[in-house]
Structure formats: structure tokens, C-alpha cells
Design brief:
- It is a single chain.
- 20% of the residues lie in helices and 41% in strands.
- The longest helix has 13 residues.
- With 169 residues, the protein is an alpha+beta fold.
- The radius of gyration is 15 Å and the shape is globular.
- A hairpin with a 2-residue loop joins strand 7 and strand 8.
């Protein structure tokens, strides 16, 4: 049931209704804040794309790491990753956040080309991202290729604060 809810939420973020486009709230270095919808359907999210990836030259769609608030559903800081390629079923991708020269690892579960934090433990990931400088998301494709995407966390905290303010109203 939880996995289905997360998939639905992912679709809402990935494929907004044609009648309404997400509104860009602000850009904070490498992260951009958006708001979509209103009332119980309001979604506030931030997104960033990788600064680099390994291996080079792989065929894939754009990748995005997102954090979202769904105030009408009582969800805050929901982490979602669109990797841009089909993921190996039942694999456990990892986000490794660098905080003051130390790393912290967080595991994810997968569905198709998306990943979410295991056991809905989003808050520790968000807090690490606020304190961190870089993050590497490593996942295995359905073909067995291990892919690592490197993200800058510069601007994450400011962008996260922007969606928190936007989703209060």
C-alpha cells in the first residue's frame, strides 16, 4: 500500500496535469523550488540534477533528486529520485551524503525508474542534505550497470526553506 502511494505521488510530481504547470518559486544555487496546485492538492518541491555521473556515455533520460511537501496529505520532506533509466528490481540504491568530510549512507527502494527512502525515513536524509556539501546517488540499472550520480547540495537548505514557507499558506 505504501509503495502504491509513493508511486502515485511520484507520478504527480513527474507528470503534472496539462491544465496547470508548476510555478517556479526561486532558484538557490543548484536547487530550484516549485509549487503546483492549491488547497489539498498543493505540492511544494525542490529539484536538482546531477553535476556529473559515471559511467560516462550511458543512454538515459534526465535525472532529478527531489524533496517534496504534500500538506493536504500531511507529508513533509518526501524524498524521490528519478534516475532516468529502469532500475534493477529489488535493488537497494544508496545516497551517500558528505558532511564535514564524513559520509552518511541512506538506502532506498525502487520501482521502475524511481527510488524512495526505505521505511519513509526521510527526515534524517533531509537533515544530512542540509548539513552536507555533496551527495552521490548510486543505483543499479535493470541491465546490471552500476550508475553513480553526483549532486551538489549548495542551495538545498535555502530551497527547502522556500517550499516550507510556500506550503504553510
Amino acid at each position: 500500500m505504501l509503495a502504491r502511494l509513493l508511486i502515485v505521488l511520484s507520478i504527480l510530481l513527474a507528470f503534472p496535469a496539462m491544465a496547470q504547470e508548476p510555478k517556479r518559486l526561486s532558484t538557490h544555487h543548484d536547487w530550484t523550488a516549485y509549487v503546483y496546485g492549491s488547497g489539498k492538492e498543493k505540492i511544494c518541491y525542490i529539484a536538482s540534477s546531477p553535476k556529473s555521473h559515471k559511467p560516462k556515455g550511458i543512454n538515459r533520460d534526465p535525472a532529478f533528486f527531489k524533496a517534496a511537501h504534500f500538506p493536504g496529505r500531511g507529508l513533509t520532506g518526501e524524498i524521490h529520485v528519478d534516475v532516468g533509466y529502469p532500475l534493477k528490481p529489488n535493488s537497494r540504491p544508496r545516497a551517500r551524503v558528505t558532511v564535514k568530510k564524513k559520509t552518511q549512507d541512506y538506502r532506498f527502494f525502487v520501482k521502475d525508474s524511481s527510488a524512495w527512502v526505505e521505511d519513509q525515513k526521510n527526515e534524517p536524509v533531509v537533515e544530512a542534505m542540509k548539513a552536507g556539501s555533496t551527495m552521490v546517488f548510486t543505483a543499479t540499472s535493470a541491465r546490471g550497470t552500476v550508475v553513480s550520480d553526483s549532486y551538489s547540495l549548495k542551495g538545498f537548505t535555502a530551497a527547502y526553506k522556500a517550499i516550507t514557507r510556500a506550503c504553510r499558506s
